[in-house]
Amino acid sequence: MNKPFERAATTFHLNGREEAPVLQPGQRLSEVLRETLGQRDVKIGCDAGDCGACTVLVDGAPVCACLTPAHQAMGRKIETVQGLNAHDPLAARLAQSFLDHGAAQCGICTPGMMVSAVALLREVPAPSEDQVKDALGGVLCRCTGYRKIIDAVMDAPAISEQAAGQVGEAIRHLDGADKVAAKVAYGDDVAPLGCLEVRVIRSPYARAAFEIGDLEAFARAAGFETVLTAADIAGQNSFGVIPGFEDQPVFAQDEARFRGEAVAALVGPREQLRLIDPGALPIRWTELPAAQDIDTAQSAEAAQLHEGRANNVMCGGFVTCGDPEAALARAHVTVEGRFQSGFVEHGYIEPEAGFAQMVNDRVEVHACTQAPVMDLEGLERILGLDRSRIRVIPTAVGGGFGAKLDLTVQPYLALAALKTGKPVRVCYSRTESMQSSTKRHPSDITLRIGADADGKICGFDFRGGFDTGAYASWGPTVANRVPVHASGPYSVADYIAQSTGIHTNNPPAGAFRGFGVPQSAIAQESLFDELAEELGLDALEFRITNALTNGAPTVCGQVFEQGVGVKACLEALRPAWISERAEAETFNATHKTRKRGVGVAAGWYGCGNTSLPNPSTIKSGIRPDGTLVLHQGAMDIGQGANTVITHLFATALGARADQIELVGADTDVTPDAGKTSASRQTFVSGNAARLSGEALRAAILERMNVAQDAALDFRAGAIHATDAAGAHVLDLASLDADDEGYVLRASETYDPPTKPLDTNGQGHPYAQFGYAAHLAVVEVDMALGTVTPVRFVAAHDVGKAVNPTLVEGQVHGGIAQGLGMALMEEYIPGRTENLHDYLIPTIGDIPPIETIIIEEPDAHGPYGAKGLGEHVLIPTAPALLNAIKHATGVRLYKVPAIPSAVHAALKGGAGA
Ligand code: FES
Ligand code: FES
After folding, report:
1. According to the 3-state scheme, what is the secondary structure of 26-66?
2. How far away, in angstroms, is 813 Cα from ligand 2 center?
């Protein structure tokens, strides 16, 4: 980029062709590429130079297209990832390497990553890891934990041959080719060029009364199409995800309860909406005293956010067994502590976005979501329309992690399409996304644990307050889950755990990988280290002594006779634990300023809804031409559901995974596979896929009159079967096709067996748990307070690894998020509302990760498999905090442990 721009030029070269766009003053290159030239492989994650998703090459140099004025590109050569893939063999090889390594999960960061990597590889064909980290340091990924991206760029060994895709085989993501080719359409990629847009008007205050003046007149004068307010809602102006807690308005009326809450929306041309100054709108705001922490919200002076929720208490959860007070009284040692955590932002690179249109008097909503059928139900309530008049067709999802379970853009899109009758689109700015989306619950936990002289846990008393923000969202789920999980995966006979969700004037806290369990694990796993130290026991062996085993009751009185794999996870860490502790001792003997520490922690997570029905349905069919079709409605948000569900179906049917044609989620044509949350898709939808595969196979065998163990060979127009009696052929064209064109079909549902919890929280909340244990090695700069993770070893009991490459990818991504929560991430309304001030881990922050897969089969899991999505970050933060304590002798009681907090703790000699 040293060559001066030729301002007089009117054209540029884009991917080998000449373009001559008409520019508007101040237009960004990203805007011209995407919105004038339709080059939607250029992604927008922040529009501010922070995420790198928009990276393109300008005369061979990587730049953020969102920071580059379009006129500066005139006369230059612009290459996007699609152009590189088409014209540069090096890029095509890199795309294959990304695919082979599973380096694209949701895929939204992949264009920026690949463009940056091509620039590096052109200069340095065989880069070192540090060179890769330097070159890709400006591109953020929230899914992968970066390790597989590094491997892909360095061309490390990977999947070479594509296996059949039976359970247990590492195959490439079945939807990966489109991702590395940047052909996948996310929420902001589906609308036609030039269609109307929606801009949501939001409260600038945490709490404010407001009056909307003549917004219609303002809009008319400014040339907008229309406005939307609460008056446009024909149904109910409320939504929510838990029955009985639908308390969040689409548009606030009279009072806004958090900064960023929607009060109205403008619909109009993109260019005009961009110029709007929200301060110029006819809305009169009166700021009111706000409660922005749970102590203030529970004070006598605090305003009550919701009728019927006295003292701003939304709800609570409770589990008890045995006699915890008596046990604590007789314990040989007891330890206690107060642990706090802040809001954590999901930080997916794709902001909430979508498109809606009217089709034959029906409203059709295309948006990024984790829960299409829940979206349909929510829209039905808001729009006051029968569900037959609504269709939800999810786009690809550029990361979700829980926040895209709630309605976001969908109501505004649907209302605008219905009111104007025209296609409309919306994409939240990064700041809007961060202001209005749900967050991980801040927590304030006090915990007391005892142990007897033999090192067995003896009494456990947990009290947790959770800031659930202005509206309920998934707060009730967090309140219920935490007491069930707060013991960790250990035998605790005498136990009490109480949790309370408290409303504040903060953004709604909702679902975020773990539903409150990562917060409670910090308290429990930190105090387990303290107990071991008090008793003079090894911290890992102390955990192994107390680990749950087959046949031992959980704190809910649930007994699993099989499948409890936490001890195996902990034992798998023993070699690294011994060697890393020894190495740390050697290191610390020779280093004064930097100190090394090793920490360990375990975790567990119940897969699926807590004691509630949780069904998934998967449909399949065969067309006369022999095409095998799987209606797969389990949203793939990067975690790999499209691949894993297909693996399970193909294995049950006896086909190759790459023979299956997927029909994705669409409320018109794909049955409800439930929401992608709570680590349920591999377990629940996976079981439905297995059943569907088995049922389709049974139908084929019956039709062909062949043996149960017959080998099937699916070919064009025919199925060939071989059994002991010989070879058989079924001519598919000879069969009658049904309304959907299938000659054979199956549709099966699976709902995990659970039992309700009684008033003491005793029951069977989940049909299966997954287990994990992490070891973290850190170096702490004792002068600066900086913490540098240097290695992780992660052991995960997944029952059966359906696809080991995808398991590793989940583990890496979860560790990166756990690291962010532990060391750097805190969302503060009004202060960290962008990816410049809110820091998430970059490629330079993630050290090597060793993944150890433990397979303790689960009787309920498909082929023994367990869920994994949430488990992957639960032990990470406490393992890091325990490593910091080991390195420094100082315990941190609050996350994130940012350098200033660590520094203060080191100076004070006590936990921050
Ligand atoms: S969109 Fe350009 S850096 Fe984020
Ligand atoms: S794969 Fe990188 S953000 Fe999702």
Report:
1. CCEHHHHHHHHCCCCCCCCCCCCCCCCCCEEEECCEEEECC
2. 9
On whether the CB atoms of residues 542 and 531 are closer than 8 A, the answer is: yes
Residue among 34, 357, 28 at smallest CA distance from 188: 34
Q: Which of 54, 58, 115 to mutate to test the pocket of ligand 1 (most atoms within 8 A of CB)?
A: 54
Query: What's the confidence (pLDDT) of residue 678?
Result: 81
| CA gap 873, 538 in Å, rounded | 23
The amino acid at residue 546 is N
Q: Residue 126 pLDDT more than 80?
A: yes
Which mutation among 64, 68, 141, 427 tests ligand 1's pocket best, with the greatest number of atoms within 8 A of CB? 64
3-state secondary structure of 317: strand
Would the pLDDT of 910 be above 70?
no
Kindly tell me if the per-residue pLDDT of 486 is higher than 50.
yes
Decide the pairing of beta strands 744-750 and 769-781: unpaired
Cα separation, 631 vs 662, whole angstroms: 6
Ligand 2 neighbourhood includes 106 CB (under 6 angstroms): yes
Dist CA 465 CA 441 (whole Å): 9
The total number of residues shown for the chain amounts to 912
- Identify the band that residue 909 occupies on the pLDDT scale cut at 50, 70 and 90: low
Is any atom of ligand 2 closer than 6 Å to the C-beta of 639? no
Sheet of 61-64, strands arranged across: 17-19, 12-14, 77-79, 55-58, 61-64
Measured from CB, residues less than 6 Å from any atom of ligand 1 are 44-47, 49-54, 64, 66
For ligand 2, mutation pick of 109, 401, 637, 806 (most atoms within 8 Å of CB): 109
SS (H, E, C) 340-365: EECEECCCCCCCCEEEEEEECCEEEE
872 by DSSP, 3-state: which?
Answer: helix
Task: Give the integer Cα–Cα distance in Å for 444 and 343.
Answer: 12
782 lines ligand 2 (CB under 6 A): no
Question: Does the Cβ of 117 fall within 6 Å of ligand 2?
Answer: no
pLDDT tens sequence across 792-832: 999 999 999 999 999 999 999 999 999 999 999 999 999 99
Condensed to tens digits (0 to 9), the pLDDT of residues 378-388 reads 999 999 999 99
Q: Is the CB of 349 under 6 A from ligand 2?
A: yes
Cis check: omega of the bond before 157, within 30 degrees of 0: no
**How confident is the model at residue 163, as a pLDDT?**
86
Atom of ligand 1 nearest to the CA of 43: 1
CA distance 631 to 200: 35
Report the candidate in 821, 844, 639 with the shortest Cα–Cα distance to residue 140. 844
Angstrom distance (rounded) from CA 366 to CA 667: 11
Q: pTM score, two decimals?
A: 0.96
**Separation in Å, CA 760 to CA 483, 631, 756:** 11, 41, 11
Pick the atom of ligand 1 nearest to 46's CA. 4
Q: Which two tokens stand for residue 564?
A: 């409890």
Task: Give 838-897 pLDDT, tens digit per residue.
Answer: 999 999 999 999 999 999 999 999 999 999 999 999 999 999 999 999 999 999 999 999
As beta bridge partners, residue 722 has 711, 727
Tokens standing for residue 678 = 């709570």
Task: Tell how far CA 54 is from the center of its chain.
Answer: 21
Using the predicted structure, report yes or no on whether residue 4 has a pLDDT greater than 50. Answer: no
Distance 41 CA to ligand 2 centre (A): 14
Binning pLDDT at 50, 70 and 90, where does residue 54 land? very high
Residue 786 burial (10 A CB sphere; 0-12, 13-18, 19+): middle
From 544, 379, 368, 521, select the one nearest 445 (Cα to Cα): 521
Ramachandran area for residue 114 (φ above 0: left; ψ -120 to 50: alpha; else beta):
alpha
